[in-house]
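User: My instructor asked us to take a sequence, write out its structure as tokens, and then describe one feature of it. I'm not sure where to start. Here is the sequence I was given:
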Amino acid sequence: MGKTALVVGATGLIGRELVEQLLESDRYDAVWIVVRRSKRWRHPKLHEIVGFEEMDSSLPQIDDVYCALGTTIAVAGSQEAFKQVDLELPLEVARVAKAHGATRYAVVSAQGASLRSTFFYNRVKGELENALRIFNFHHLIIARPSLLLGERDSFRFGEKAAEVISRPFQSILLEKTPEVAPIQALHVARALIMASEEGEGIEVLTSGMMQRMSR
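Assistant: Let's start with the prediction itself. The structure tokens for your sequence are:
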């Protein structure tokens, strides 16, 4: 029998790619997503839970978790609201998933994530990475992408401006400095799924590593 996957952050840039690629994968018989509002997506392998408060009571036994939750302080409205989405929710997902049998947890963090970072965003991502280690998943996969490329539902001016400016230099950046070159969301999703095929312990995927894995 194939595996069962859980995806949180399924409506975001990387999350949508994860869902699409997981549904196409022969490794998974079922893909569960948790959303705030029903997306009414239709696929025989796809199952939806509406509301994180329903996750514990509605989730079946699962194997692998893919966490692509993330926002910005501007969208969240405050640092505390940002931490609720980028720190507290991913940890709650880890707790519930572990109770439902999950042995692998793949999470999207950020380039520069560190407990000692002077930047609030990177410091929160560092807190998340550190806290996830405590759950002792058989395999914890941490992705640290650089600037993400792809079609977002919401417009983020700073990211869009950086994407436009860097686009003419994309091939040069990939060749010379793959760690800082912008990366397509579909490549991050693909790298996370590839890394989930096997392995154990804590595995950190840098942006350059994910670029190479997608070639």
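For the description part of your assignment, you could build on this observation: The CA atoms of residues 112 and 118 lie 10 Å apart. Try explaining in your own words what that tells you about the chain.
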